[in-house]
Fold this protein.
Amino acid sequence: MRQSPANRILILLKTDGPQLAAAIGEALGISSEAARQQLTKMAEEGLVEPVAEAAAGRGRPRQFWHLTTAGNRQFPDGHADLTATLLATMVSQLGQGALDTVISAREADTLQRYRSEIDLTADLPSRVASLAAIRTQEGYMADHWQDDDGSLMLVENHCPICAAACACSGFCRSELETFRAALGARVEREEHILLGARRCAYRIRAAA
């Protein structure tokens, strides 16, 4: 099914971050003016908003389009309110230990599944590519690439378990450990949605 221009813009801003109208028009194969008209309509719906950012040198400020909170809500949230409520109830009724047990069990199950799909005999770029594909299937809108210094980046533009992670940072810590074990590599988180970043980003290097 062909996506509407609005949906394509939402996905573009989600995956690539704030954009100029001209860049959005180019990505969609339409004119800058047509892109601005679509963005204006989406702004009226509360999905996007323009933010003026100073240009380099003495140039006039440029208007970048950002997703609003409502715009971000157009992407799956894994039943955010119910998840947060269930986690809070678990801790209050059963104690923190019960939640820790659940997180550990989820980590073990996830690691087993990842290891069945990632070939540890393959080179590290191939393993990272496999993990990115798995995470995309799970709703994280993942991407990956190799930097000039040889390290690899895994980027997740969306977090479908954000509500759970907000309620308990143990989920994020568990995922980081799962990545390390599944890849057999050093993994460090460089950007974190829960700390205000637009995405979660991980730098990956071969194990020492």
